Amino acid sequence: MTTTQQLRTTTPEERRRVRFASTIGTTIEFYDFYAYATAAVAVFPYLFFPKSESSTVALLQSFATFGLAFIARPLGSVVFGHFGDRVGRKATLVGALLTMGIATFIIGLLPTYATAGLWAPALLALMRFCQGLGLGGEWSGAALLSTETAAKGRRAWAAMWPQLGAPFGFLLANGLFLILVTWLGHTRGDVEGAFMTWGWRVPFLLSSVMVAVGLWVRLQVEETPVFQKVLNDNEKVSSPVSEVLAKAWKPLVQGTLIMVGCYTLFYIVTTWFLSYGIGSATEGVGLGIEYVDFLKLQLVCIFGFIIGIPVACRLADTYGRRPVLGWTSAAIIAYGAAFRWLLNPDSFTMLSLGIFLFTGMVLMGLIFGPMSAILPELFPSNVRYTGSGISYNVASILGAAIAPFIATALNAAHGPAAVGVYLIVVTAVSLAAILWSPETRDMEMHEI
To answer: Whole-prediction pTM value?
Structure first.
């Protein structure tokens, strides 16, 4: 790449603003996303779809709309990526946040199936699609904001901050649901109480306050020096997505496959674990744990996710991206093999489930942490927003959109051991992609 302008050096103060802006932005985005994921298990099957004799059928219907956002995310990465690579990272991130926030707020106002009939699931699906569009442009922009302003030798550590938005958003969303469920006295199977009547709407409506704060913070940051150099050197391309497909297809495939196992693990240990934990023991599709009790367990275990992210990012800056991701993938494969014994309803205890879930969250932090460094590092500066975004979000279809659906169906047919095998197979694919990809730790972002 031609280098005619010297790269501007970021100040410590600027990097602190970027850390705050990227963390709070992704926290809000993931809060919105997880609020839907929680409601997809505990609320929407009962309120937004026709009644079914089978709890599994109702859950699968809800998971189908849950998966719509993941289908929208690659489209969001193309749309927002185009502007991110042509207009700039900062302005595009503001648009992504507004798209996500408005859709989430509207979900809190939607009529239910009893009121609007088939319009209810249709409108829910539309808003879920819009959520996906927004998140499709959010993650890659936040990752680029962090990596393109990072201090030398600390890029994975800088990229840690948007990654922390995932567990922070999870804590906020599920913590608020737990407070509401406890306060309103909700129990599993109650479809007429205060929580199901109006309480579930509160987390979605409150997102508007968080979005306002996030917008104010995002408007305080400057454009990244790496993208400013692209503008100064006149290296913008007219169609970033065409450029990626024509000239950067190899890193596109590598990034997508690297990320797919990470997504599969996360949505198994969060969304599917929730449905399995509170699922009917009588029907043989779950453990029959009270919803409130399982939410408490999840909120404790999410700290394993928070611990894993900075540990992995520090190791990735010290030893490289490939060793950290490779060894963690091997550990996830071993974890998948343990499903056969540790999720057996006959030998179930809350302690064993808690340890198992906490372990999965730690592994999730270790595999997720360096992703916001390695995916942007695979692509040139003038198509980085588009390339990293497409990789991240196509992987969301292959790994996350279908994971709860497949896991639910496998569990109903063959038990939790089959879910473990599913995780092993997908993670093995990601491990192969990690070994295929280059080591990017010592590369300069403006020279890729």
So the answer is: 0.85
Query: pLDDT digits over 350-408, tens only?
Result: 778 888 899 999 999 999 999 999 999 999 989 999 999 999 999 988 887 788 889 88
Of 355, 176, 325, 178, nearest to 261 by C-alpha is: 325
Taken as a whole, the chain contains a residue count of 448
Do the Cβ atoms of 33 and 99 come closer than 8 Å? no
Cα–Cα distance for residue pair 303/243, rounded to 1 Å: 40
Domain boundaries, the chain: 12-220+238-447
Interatomic CA distance for residues 280 and 41, integer angstroms: 13
* Alpha-carbon 123 to chain mean position: 23
Superfamily classification of domain 12-220+238-447: MFS general substrate transporter like domains (1.20.1250.20)
pLDDT digits (tens, 9 = 90+) for 293-331: 888 888 899 999 999 999 999 999 999 999 999 999 999
Give the pair of three-digit tokens for residue 412: 């109903």
Q: How far is CA 319 from CA 80, 94, 289, 332, 434, in A?
A: 33, 34, 42, 20, 15
